[in-house]
Amino acid sequence: MVQFYMKEKIYVVDTNIILQNVQNLYKISDNKTNTIVIPETVLIELEDKKKLTNELGYHSREFARLLAKMKIKEVDHKESFKVVKLYNDELVIHIISKNNYDSEIEQAHLSESNDKRIIEVAKVAQEYYKGIQTVFLSIDIYARTFAQLGAIKAETLHDDKSTVPAFEFIKTISLDSSEFNALDGKDVQQIDPNYTYENFSYCFQSDDGNSLYAIVVNEKLHVLKEDDFKALHVKPVNLKQKLFMKAILSNMYELLVIDAKAGSGKTLLSIVSAMRLIDKGYYDKIVYVRNSIESLDQGAEVGFLSGNDEKFRIYNMALSDTLEFIAKKDLKKSENRENKEAIESKIAELTNRYCIETLWPGEARGRTLNSAIVIMDEWQNSSEKTTQLILSRLDETCMAIVIGSNRQIDNMYLNKYNNGLTSLLKQTNNKHPELKMFAIELEKAVRGKFAEFTERIFEKRKK
Predict the structure, then answer these.
(1) Gap between the Cα atoms of 159 and 2, Å rounded
(2) H/E element holding 92?
């Protein structure tokens, strides 16, 4: 964990520090107390990513714009390296380039080769700034290990775990069942004097074994009822799904944040609830947003694919699967249920009826969304910057549903403490004058025996 002190330090930064968020440089600088060293290899890696259409490309271009606005103080030519010294009102950045590197560039192991060249520059910095502590900053454990093997102090950069609060999304209270009938619409503080903004839902339990559940809207209790979901294409099957859907259907929250494990139905429930609100005339369309960083296990970023349709088909498959599921449900009583043409026709009908469109973050700039339910999916893979970008495009006629799982972070530049999903979850502990928030965690997988099997075998083993 990086800790900043008034005594000057030299921070040699890895590429991933900038690609995570350019704003990291300002935190590291600590009002120009510290000098930031950018190795030449980092510049090359950032240049390679400038043309990407995803978030990595965005941060690369942001850094290029920052660099272009800085002033050159001097260029210090040494025998085996040179230092370009730049500055502005908030940053001091030195770019170091060696004349010759000990590490050969191997295309088959390019990342490792680059890491070693970056560490070579860190060693140069250690000598050049002798008397000032030099620290290598990287999110990558392998790069930090290379640095430590070279006797260079190495640290990572992420939020402290203590900054992520424990959430009490559903609060349980003991209550006599004789009071149950009077709970709907009642001021929550009359029932719970210790109510706080993070208590979005309640479970009331009586000594005689009865239970009642409610969400809190404008500090009033809204009790779950049997007929809450009767008009839906797909109905919730467990308590937390019901609370989630009731919160959406109440149309009283502008921003809903859901931390939901794989197979919990988060995307399906969001789409189905959004359709119902459009049927009731509250909104005109559904906008589905997902960041274009894919699982590193797949070895691909969709930014490298050519053509927008093919590029974003991959990460919109969750939406396609959801629409297919709803289409089959609607065709259940028809002989055409398994007919491919009938299913495709039904999906097209749903897409047109609910004006469903997809959006990737790079398309959002310059747009203003109105009268839309914006579903931001897999948001654990999006940064705070992307979160700000999308939410700032919504006007007062929109609702945003942010869903994701901190168990499945595929963006190597983020972790569970600093991604967009967590950043919004942190805000649910507070009351905000601009909008009303709701949050819940969906923990139960509902995909069937395979999801239950993997959860039992793998999740419990991790614990």
Answers:
(1) 9
(2) strand 92-98
Domain ranges, residue 182: 161-224
> Do 285 and 307 have their domain in common?
yes
**Residue from 442, 423, 383 nearest 262 by CA:** 442
Q: Which of 418, 359, 434 is nearest to 390 (CA)?
A: 359
Residue 35 sits in a domain whose CATH number is 3.40.50.1010
CATH number at residue 188: 2.30.130
Whole-number pLDDT of residue 45: 94
Q: How far apart are CA 402 and CA 257, in angstroms?
A: 5
Q: Are residues 149 and 244 in the same domain?
A: no
pLDDT of residue 55: 73
Query: Per-residue pLDDT for 303 more than 60?
Result: no
The pLDDT value given to residue 51: 84
Are 416 and 163 within 8 A, CB to CB? no
What is the CB neighbour count within 10 angstroms for residue 228? 17
pLDDT digit string, tens, across residues 106-160: 766 677 889 999 999 999 999 999 999 999 999 888 899 989 999 999 998 755 4
Last residue of a domain, one of 157, 180, 198: 157
- Residue 173 and residue 131 share a domain: no
pTM of the predicted model as reported, rounded to 2 decimal places: 0.79
Q: Are 146 and 111 in contact (CB under 8 A)?
A: no
* Owner of token pair 């919160």: 247
153 and 173, same domain (yes or no): no
Residue range 152-191, pLDDT digits in tens: 999 987 554 446 667 778 999 999 999 999 999 999 999 9
Residues in the chain: 463
Q: Read off the DSSP letter of residue 208.
A: T
- Residues 332-343 have a mean pLDDT of 73
Beta-carbon-side half-sphere exposure of residue 381 (alpha carbons within 13 Å): 23
Q: What is the DSSP letter of 383?
A: -
Identify the CATH number of the domain in which residue 256 sits: 3.40.50.300
